Amino acid sequence: MPVNDKPATIAHKAERYLSGARLALLGVMVNAFLGIVKILAGLLGNTYALIADGVESLLDIFGSLVVWFGLRVASEPPDDEHPYGHGKAEVVASFVVAFTIIAAAIGLAVQSIREIMTPHGMPAAWTLWVLMVVVLVKGILYRKVIRAGDQLGSTAVKTDAWHHWADALTSVLAFIGILVALWLHEPTADDWAALAASFIIAWGGINLLRPAMREAMDTAPPRGLVDEVRALASSVPGVLALDQCRIRKMGLDFYVDLHVGVEPTLSVREGHRIAHAVRKVIRDAKREVADVLVHVEPEDELEDADE
């Protein structure tokens, strides 16, 4: 007997999505400002590493806008066409951003090689101060966004956080490249730094694909969550056994499909009451669980849960 009431926390879920969307907009504004500053400083200071860093920041604007749009769509409540809500929009956003990062890394690598092969002048020493400010700002923003991503359980927000971390890394490498160029009087050092940064960015984009792919494929959640859900269901009076326990992630939330065994002679009404009690105890204890579909079956007809 399945029990699947409409969740009573739609407004709360929407607010969680929108809080992530606000962080994405903050990232857009910060990246726009820093990107313009870095490109201008790179042009005036004769350093391609800083120009490349600025271009990477401007590309991050696209990524943050994709995350913002994905979270806005994901915040929409369930409808007839999307009875489980729009949470998968967050996964789509993560895919788009990850591929954008990889494409940007390839473009950065190609241009870095061209700069290495093209003679040019020495970078200006004052550009180091610009990079120190950038690293500080991006480090603070990364910590803020990744903390929010962990709290929300949002793959897209964590993806956006990687944007800021990658930007900070490229700025650190640009700083090192310019410093080495000035120290050794080797103008291509900052171009080599930009090339090294492209590999780091590409590796980050590949790593971002993994959680998005797992969520898109409905990969099972951590075993600990399954064990906790089973323990909570077993604690309900009247539940004599458990069989299947399947959990899938949909956006920020988890959906549980659970089979419980009860006394075969119970009335339908009593079985229904037990199912509601199981659903309530799980949702009360685990806020990340949006809904629980409980199947009530006679205990002596349940399959062995360990099979």
Descriptors:
single chain; about 300 residues; mainly alpha; Alpha-lytic protease prodomain-like; Alpha-Beta Plaits; elongated
Written account of the structure:
By secondary structure, this protein is mostly helical. It has two domains: 10-216, Alpha-lytic protease prodomain-like (Up-down Bundle), CATH 1.20.1510.10; 223-301, Alpha-Beta Plaits. 67% of the residues lie in helices and 10% in strands. It contains eight helices and three strands, in the order αααααααββαβ. It has helices at 10-45, 48-74, 88-117, 127-152, 155-184, 189-216, 223-234, 268-285, and strands at 241-250, 253-262, 289-298. The chain has a three-stranded mixed beta sheet, with helices on one face. Strand 1 and strand 2 form a beta hairpin. The radius of gyration is 25 Å and the shape is elongated. The relative contact order is 0.14. Mean pLDDT is 79; it is low at 1-8.
Portion in helices: 55-70%
Supply Rg. Answer: 25 Å
- Please state the second-level CATH architecture of the largest domain: Up-down Bundle
Reported for the largest beta sheet, the result is: 3 strands, mixed
Order of strands in the sheet with most strands: 1-2-3
Q: What is the gist of this entry?
A:
With 307 residues, the chain is mainly α. Helices cover 67% and strands 10% of the residues. Mean pLDDT is 79; it is low at 1-8.
